[in-house]
Each structure stands twice: as structure tokens, then as C-alpha cells.
Amino acid sequence: MPEILGHNFIAGQRSAAGAQRLQSLDATTGEALPYSFAQATEGEVDQAAQAAAAAFAEFRQLSPARRAEFLDAIAAELDELDDAFVAIVCRETALPAARIQGERGRTSGQMRLFAQVLRRGDFLGARIDLALPERQPLPRVDIRQMRIGVGPVAVFGASNFPLAFSTAGGDTAAALAAGCPVVFKAHSGHMATADLVACAIQRAAERTGMPKGVFNMVFGGGVGEWLVKHPAIQAVGFTGSLKGGDALCRMAAGRAQPIPVFAEMSSINPVIILPGALAKRGEAIARELAGSVTLGGGQFCTNPGLVIGLQSSGFSKLLGDLGGHLDQQAGQTMLNAGGLRSYVGGLEHLQAHAGIQHLAGQPQQGSQARAQLFKADARLLVDSDPLLQEEVFGPATVVVEVADDEQLRSALLGLRGQLTATLIGEPEDFEAFAWLVPLLEEKVGRILINGYPTGVEVCDAMVHGGPYPATSDARGTSVGSLAIDRFLRPVCYQNYPQSLLPEALRDANPLRLRRLVNGQWNDDVIA
Amino acid sequence: MPEILGHNFIAGQRSAAGAQRLQSLDATTGEALPYSFAQATEGEVDQAAQAAAAAFAEFRQLSPARRAEFLDAIAAELDELDDAFVAIVCRETALPAARIQGERGRTSGQMRLFAQVLRRGDFLGARIDLALPERQPLPRVDIRQMRIGVGPVAVFGASNFPLAFSTAGGDTAAALAAGCPVVFKAHSGHMATADLVACAIQRAAERTGMPKGVFNMVFGGGVGEWLVKHPAIQAVGFTGSLKGGDALCRMAAGRAQPIPVFAEMSSINPVIILPGALAKRGEAIARELAGSVTLGGGQFCTNPGLVIGLQSSGFSKLLGDLGGHLDQQAGQTMLNAGGLRSYVGGLEHLQAHAGIQHLAGQPQQGSQARAQLFKADARLLVDSDPLLQEEVFGPATVVVEVADDEQLRSALLGLRGQLTATLIGEPEDFEAFAWLVPLLEEKVGRILINGYPTGVEVCDAMVHGGPYPATSDARGTSVGSLAIDRFLRPVCYQNYPQSLLPEALRDANPLRLRRLVNGQWNDDVIA
């Protein structure tokens, strides 16, 4: 394991120009770990953004296969991160070793998935409309299109996934795959982890001959604003709070040249329990739901924060069972002290609301988060009460009992945009409640049937996105291979000689791409 | 031809609730035409947006083939618009009949192109990752993805294309194809045209059994703000000024739920003339360039507003020839009086600048726009002087003579984002100046070789877009079939029973789509 230097990563070098040092803390004990980090100066942030800009022209023009080599090399380096590394991540985040080992595999798997996307080549979106010199009344000239990277991307590390949504996480992987150099802002909650992962990326970059500046990382509070406002930065990826994401969007929109921000923010992930399932397997649902609510200390973007059911003795029984499971949960150490404060504050807001009742959960005290169950009046949902729409980040959930189908519909229409919605039901439920499906489609990025939203598969078909405030742009996803689309834009080449065309668009089709040629998809060479 | 009622189009009905009437004017004489229009009230704008929202669930769930029928029916109705219609468009815009006839064909062709996109089905982006129940350490559940419309879209008509970028124009076609109902804000410069085209869309909607509210249109100044701020509206399409587009972006970002704005705004479309071409065919280039600068009164988004060449006697000769052609151009009536005022204002700003010299063009007086040629100091480009970056909408162009390759590079780096850039060269030029191509790729949406940017082909490979300020979102295009992407977002279906899945994602593949199944593209049925 390399020494944890704590210096910023700029253009393949380490830099510590400023005087201020930041300390990494043990998440469980709060004590200082023996690692400190150089808060980046404004000059260093500028250098990092300039380094990314300088790398862009070369990096984006590398063949997809070369960029795939780089991603595969990062994956291999991540897999090599050993138990000593895992131990450091665990100390910084209070997450258990098995979770970190799993997340390491997920993070390297994510890099390999994007390497596959690069080798497949469809991300280029190659389209060719051949010249029609005889067309009447006017001839058509040769017109071709493909997508290129938008430019340097600023990525913000998330607190809750020190690997999969951080230094070498999904946003970094998608940006690099798209040909966009990255400037990564390390999260203050796991800076030693970030340093070691950045070293791994650095080794992969050197080994595969990538341009210096393809990956840069800065430490420090407040440096994000310099980064988002830097003219070289062309897009932003972020996972965090609604307040934080909104602030980045405002900064980005206020630039002389506005840029897109892909922020994954706030979601309460409703789970709707339908009557047939309740009757048949209410006890199992209560147990499974308690597991999903408390998994990882409830610190998942897809944590089920809202459970909805139709008023019935069966639903009352489920609430009793769910409360019993949550009552029995041991306390959990949260990712950091700020997270616990924020959780306790969120619980206090719920407790203070006249329309919300505490159903179960041990009193919240000390340094560990206790699971909590609340029940809210259905009218709060129907009237879009803001408190009920806000994510309480931690192992708490709110249940809502609706009187009938009509109130269920009104309650769901009152919901804001979500990452996920879940239907728990039996086949007869899906016949009776088929109307729920299109309604939920308009509210969320992912609908699950008979599952739980925690646990986001990294694959081609995943959508980890959704209408605001789940994300700042419903047209993107931050998990899965479609995430690359956020960092690409189309360019059109009109009447180009073959020699000047990018390989993807040449008649000889050297990349063997499937292309849209005169309105038909084929993988042909153009004769 | 139906009577021009001048009432707003709301949910398949006509509505004129307010007292204020707006007058259509003859663009050439300024006199009132015998048509007046009901300024929409805030209540009517609300009704129009609500009508679009009410139509959304049904419209987006129609099969792509049904939506294609609707677009084809609109195309047929547009083709039926007769000489009397063309005469009205000409009176409202001062554009010649041949141009309007051509634009009519382009507009119906655009509808048919999107109908083809719908029948092809790739816009759905169907992806399927099948369950892997045996996977270690965790099984994978079945996960599928497709794209759906984002919701009701507000579209703003452009002044300069009364048909192709207006009521039934590209943004409307793309939104309808995506399954998004439209609320169209008619441009004040051609309201009678808008009324007749909206009637044509209405007939097509009725004939093909579309839901009421699939298309709505409102008249009036200031109604755009109500529309963009309406909670039912989920995206905005706009073609117009930088100031107007920026204002819409600010409104959209300031909403409780921010929405994307696709604004096509300001571009000066640099044309770079390389030495070999200059030597071989300078005279022809001067003649062709004069034609492109003055085409349609210079009122194209892709009008070449900047001509760049390397200092030489050949380039001086070209400037003389170009000036001669522009001097000889007759005056042209602009689209409206406001356009002429704005053009004259733009010329005055150029004339008042110490670093800019007037080279040719008849004095600007009276009601017609005269073609003008200016020359600017290359340092103005290098230093990104804002005046030189601003589009002067009309038949004027600015030439810049650079000293050498190095100054050429600096000048191009100083440019803001553009819709197009054009290289005029011979094969030996492209060898010597190959470095220009990647530099321009990072600045523009479309690069042309040996052509002129005016005249935008409507096809699959076209990009009419580009980095800010050419557009507000470089990842989109407002011409060509890729424009549909702006109004789609992905939705993921996890562990769905076949009966609940959308047709596009069912195992039996009833739409015969090519889908990404377990990382491989195929058009198979899943056994």
C-alpha cells in the first residue's frame, strides 16, 4: 500500500501548495486517524481543471479500445486493493468489511462494464446519410454524425458509497468512458480512502499511457464552488443532498457559459403493499421491509422512506410486525457525526408534526442511530406536505394508510419525483391495480415488483435517476451503462473527405460499428 | 381554407376569453392584415397546459405506430395547404412564395422523418438484462429499460421559419414523436400562418383519433412566462435570440421543479478560407459566400457572420470581390420591423467599434436591409471581444485576417460555441491544416467542408446544435431525427411480470425491436 500523502492529484503529480490541513476521522470513535490532507488552494483547483482541459483533446481522440484498456487497468488496480485498504475504509466510514469488499467488486465491475460499452461502440451513435446528388429539387450532400465527450467533468464524491459513488465510482467511470477527463472532489468523510483509490487510478493511467491530467483529485471544503465555476469544466456529476445539488445547479446555471449538472439528490422511494400480498405474506413482508429500511444504517439513496397500504386489519398487523422488527434493531454507527446530527434533526421534525405519529423505535440517544417507524396522515401526502416529501437519511420510515383506491391515487399524485417505487403484490393485485403502473412511471426512474429498492444492480438496463428532486435531470442515470450518455454530445460532419473523418464514420467501418445508414441500421462497409 | 378565427387552441376547442386582440401585419408594408388574434389569458394558458397534461398518459402509451399515423396525417394536411395559404405566409413574413413552398415540403418531410423514427423503434432504447438466479455472490433479478416522453412540452415559434421552426416545426414534431403533448406559443410575426397550421394539426388529430389536448396553441405577448412556469410543463423548445433563450432558462431553473430548456440561440458560424482554395477558386468563393450571407435576407441561424483567412494578397482580393458582390445586392425586406431595427442597431455597434472597419455595402436607409461587409482586427477574436461574438441577424458579415497559423489558432480558441464552422480548402489545405478539425469539433455542432452553412438538411445525421451560446444544451439538436432524444427519459422495470411490461420490453418482442439483451444487440424473441 502506498503512503497516504494527503496531497492533491494534479496532472499526474502531487501538490500541497496551501497551509491548511484536513484530518481524517475514525467514524466510530471520532478520533483523528494518522492521515492529514492538504486543502486545495484556488490555484490548485485551477491547475487541476486546466490539466483536465489539456488532456481532453488527446484523451477524447483515443480509440474506444484504448480507453477501455484504461478502465480495465483501473478495475485491476481496484481489485488489488487489499485488506489493509479495506480496514482504512471501514475506519473512515464505520461500514463493515464485508460491505466494503462487496463495494470494491462492484466498483471494479462498473469500470469493466464501461470498458464493454466502449468495445461495443454503440455509445458513439454513428449515423450516416450518404450524398444524393440526383435528388430533386436539391441534391443532398454527405452528412455523418457521432458523439464526442463534452469536455472535463467535475465529480463530487458521495458520503455513503466510499468506493462505488466516489473517486473511481460510477460518475468517474462514465466520464472517462465518454472521453472526458475528470477533476474529482474528495468527500471529507473518507479522504484516506480517496487518496488510495486515486493512487490506483494514477497507476492505471501510467501503465496504459494515458495523458497526464486525465484524472485529478482535490481535497477540501469549499473547493467545489471553484471547480463548478471554472470555465474549463463542462459538466458536473454529484450524489448528495437536495440542498447541495440545488446549490451546484444554481452555480452552473449562473456561469458565463452554463453547464449541465447531473445531481442525484433526494428520494423517499415509496413501497406500496397491495392487499393480496398482505393477506398471503404480511409477516414476511414486514421482516423484509425492516431489513431494507435498516440496511447499511438506512444510508442508501434508495432506502424505503415511505410505506403505503390500504386501511385494513392486515395492514395494521403489518405495521405492528414492522414496528416490532425495528424496535429490536441494534443501534448502528452512521457514516459520520454530521450524518447522525442530520438524522436526529430529521426525526425531531417528524416528531414535532401534528399529523405524524411515532409508532416504534428505541429512543434516539448516544452515538448510534436507532431505527424508527412513524405514521403520517394520508392527507399530508395528498396535500404534498413538504416534510413528508423530504428524505430522512438514516434507518427511519414513514407509513401512510390510505382509505381507498381513490385516496391511494391522490396520495401518489401528490408525490414528487423519485428514484424508485415498489409494488408488493400477488397476481390478482396486479390485475386490480394495473392503473398504478403508468401513474408510477411518470413519477420515478425505476419501478420494482416484489423486491426492495436497496441494492442497485450495475447493468445496461438500470436507471438510477428520476424526475426532480430525485435528480436534477430525469433524462440521465448515475448507475448503469446508460450513464455515459450524460457526458456525450453529437457532432455532425458534412461533406467530409474520408481522410478527415473520425474512424467511426469512415466508409470502411474500421471499428465494425452498427451504424444508422440512410435510415437503416447495419454493420456494413460502405462500398 | 378555414376561416382564420384567431382564437387560442385548447383541448381541441377554440377559446377567446380575454378582451385584448392582436393584429397581424403585412411585413412589407406594415399595414394591418384583416386578421386579429385573442391574446391568451393566464387562465387560458393554464387550461392549455392542463389539457396537455390530461392528454399525456393516453398519448405516450399509444403504440409508436399510432403516433406515426398522427405525424403522417399532419404531413398530409400540411401538403394540402394551398396557394392562398402560401400567399398569407408571404404577406406576414415578406419571404418569397418559392421559399415558403419549399419550407412547406421541408416541414411535412420532417413530420414523415419522425414517423419513420417511430416505426423503426430505436428511439425507445430498449434494454433487457435477464435474471441470473445462480449468480454468485448474489443473484440478479430481471431488469429492463425503455424511454418514455418527459411530459407536456412548451414550444416557442421562431420568427425566421414560419413553418419549419414554428407551429408544426421541428420541436413540435420531435415532442409529439416522443409522446409529449405540445403547448405551442405562436410567434407574433406570423399569427395567421400559425392559426392555419394549427387547424391542419387539429384536423390530423381528429382524423387519427388522438386525445384532445395533444396539441394546443396560445397567442400573445408575455404568455410564454406563464407557460414555462406552469407545473404541468416538463420541457421547453425555443428558437430565437440569446437574450430570450437565457431568460427562459432562468425561468425554468427557478421553478419549484426545474425543467430542461432546449434553446437554439446565437451563432456567427465562422467560415475559414484556406490558402489553396483561395489561390485556386477565390473568385467563386467570394460569389458563393455573398450568396450565403444574403440568402433569405441573412435571417438564418446558420448565416455566416464571420469569415476568417490568412493575410495574403489573395485574401485581400477575395475581400474586394466579396465587397463588390455585397455592394451590388438589392435591399431586402426583413421579416418584421423589429428585425430591421435590430439589424440597424447591430450595424451601428459594429461601426462604432474602433477595431472594426466598414469595407462595403450601400448605406442603410429606408425599410430594406442592405448587405454589409466589415473587417475586424484579429486581436478582437483572440481577446474574445463580446461585440464580435454577437450574432447580427441580417445580411452582414465580418471578416478577420489572421497573420499566421498561430494567430488563426488563437482566434478560433477565442470563439464561443457555434452551430457550425466551415472549412473551404483543397486537399493540400486539409493536410496542412488537419489540426483545425479537432479544435473546431470542440466548438461547434456541425463542421462543413467546402459548402456553406445555410441550408440545414433534415435527416438522421444532422446536428443543429452546439455549445453555448449556440444552444442552451449542447447535447441536443433541433433539426434531424436525433431531436427526439431531448424529450425522452429512461424508465427501468425490475422483476416485472410479462403482462405488466410495456410491449417494447416483452419477451415476445411484438414490436420487433432491436434490443440490448445481456449486453448484446439483437432483434430476437426471448425464449
Describe the overall structure.
The structure is a homodimer of 527-residue chains. By secondary structure, the first copy, chain A, is of the alpha/beta class. Chain A has two domains: 56-265 and 478-485, Aldehyde Dehydrogenase, Chain A, domain 1; 270-449, Aldehyde Dehydrogenase, Chain A, domain 2. Chain A has 16 helices and 23 strands. In chain A, the strands form six sheets. Chain A has a seven-stranded mixed β-sheet with strand order 15-17-18-13-12-19-20, sandwiched between helices. The radius of gyration of chain A is 25 Å and the shape is globular. Chains A and B meet through helix 1, helix 4, strand 5, strand 6 and helix 8 of A and helix 1, helix 4, strand 5, strand 6 and helix 8 of B. Strand 20 (444-449) of chain A pairs parallel with strand 21 of chain B.
Which characteristics define this entry?
homodimer, Aldehyde Dehydrogenase, Chain A, domain 1, Aldehyde Dehydrogenase, Chain A, domain 2, 2 domains, seven-stranded mixed beta sheet, five-stranded mixed beta sheet
